[in-house]
Amino acid sequence: xxxxxxxxxxxxxxxxxxxxxxxxxxxxxxxxxxxxxxxxxxxxxxxxxxxxxxxxxxxxxxxxxxxxxxxxxxxxxxxxxxxxxxxxxxxxxxxxxxxxxxxxxxxxxxxxxxxxxxxxxxxxxxxxxxxxxxxxxxxxxxxxxxxxxxxxxxxxxxxxxxxxxxxxxxxxxxxxxxxxxxxxxxxxxxxxxxxxxxxxxxxxxxxxxxxxxxxxxxxxxxxxxxxxxxxxxxxxxxxxxxxxxxxxxxxxxxxxxxxxxxxxxxxxxxxxxxxxxxxxxxxxxxxxxxxxxxxxxxxxxxxxxxxxxxxxxxxxxxxxxxxxxxxxxxxxxxxxxxxxxxxxxxxxxxxxxxxxxxxxxxxxxxxxxxxxxxxxxxxxxxxxxxxxxxxxxxxxxxxxxxxxxxxxxxxxxxxxxxxxxxxxxxxxxxxxxxxxxxxxxxxxxxxxxxxxxxxxxxxxxxxxxxxxxxxxxxxxxxxxxxxxxxxxxxxxxxxxxxxxxxxxxxxxxxxxxxxxxx
Length: 518
Fold this sequence. Notes:
Layout: H1 2-37, H2 41-52, H3 60-75, E1 79-102, E2 111-112, E3 124-126, E4 128-130, H4 135-141, E5 149-151, H5 165-194, H6 215-221, E6 225-230, E7 255-260, H7 261-272, E8 278-301, E9 306-316, H8 326-345, E10 352-359, H9 367-374, E11 383-388, E12 395-401, H10 403-413, E13 426-429, H11 447-451, E14 460-462, H12 471-474, H13 487-505
Parallel strand pairs: 4-5, 5-6, 6-7, 9-10, 9-11, 12-13
Antiparallel strand pairs: 1-8, 2-7, 3-8, 8-10, 12-14
Helix pairs in contact: 1-13, 2-8, 8-13, 10-13
């Protein structure tokens, strides 16, 4: 009888010990089932990019997107927190734009403008001139500048022309150098005339690395706008130097145009030949009185056992607005949101708190995640891991972890190994010395976490089916549209994210930081 009781107690203990594992397996299976049969990641991406559109900081689109994300989180039963990060004095929204060359060989122009730059006053047509390099050139042509479109030598970087005092100081330096070059060229011309029987010396070229040396003077002379050569696909960003400082009284008044480099070359040649033609532009960039606030949005699954310990995943909501921000980073925001929906739909009760982070103002300087970290929204030492998604719409296929994390990750990721034979998941043990902890921010929203020693173990994402995705084609360009997304990769990545978050949240300990950084 005594032996029977011992056997019975041992059996009960065995069942009790197995129950959490069985329960976890059941929850994981349910998450995978929902992710495979009712995956809505592309619905989120469709609404963000095709209904709301490009979401530049300060735009009505970003404000609407923030509200929509909060509504979605709330509808799935998550606790919602909206965190004000900052404000911008003046709001901006982009309307349509159009341009053409008016001539016998006229053409429709392929161009764009950075955000927070000037509109036209309806359709505006004008002649075209090349920019001056010296005071002598400026004085010779200043009467021709009024009502002109000016071709600049320095190519576009995607950012607006910098009109700050610091930039104007560099312009004065460039003018001084060009004056010196002008004097030397005059000497070369005199020498060549006096030695006509010799091979002529080559003239020196003006400084062209500084954008528009006579920028201020040309604006005062009444130019319609400036045109820079831009590689295709056009990279169109914003006025980094001025957008936070402008007011409704000081909004920009002179257009800043980035033109297809092939068309720019054609137009420049026509100016050099002194052909008679005009360019016509209709640019509807709109400003409105602020301040316009921008926010992080969090969906929270509160931990049942360790509510003051955290696992985080996120992507950023803001984007540039010449396209619709589908890949950068509608992709990351949508995958994070779907991981949240999958876990919430399953009624997951994690041991530690899971936070789904939809960041703001990443494109303006990682402001959203920086604010979260620097204001210690949660204790940084209590964050087990932060998973960031901000890259191509590729499929999460592996994680590389320090040796101290390896066993935990192998256990957590076991359900993913054979989940889809086309996307087998692997956990890779990092070899060699620990990496240096970063001291400067860069890249994406993981940066400030890593700078503060928080693990930012994400996923290596690949294109195993060979869809030939090129991140450079969409990165901050006019081509970042919904049709660049890869649904099957994003759907699977949402499942992977949910499973890993769940596994991390249910460990009996925080991930070890041993060997994470030197």
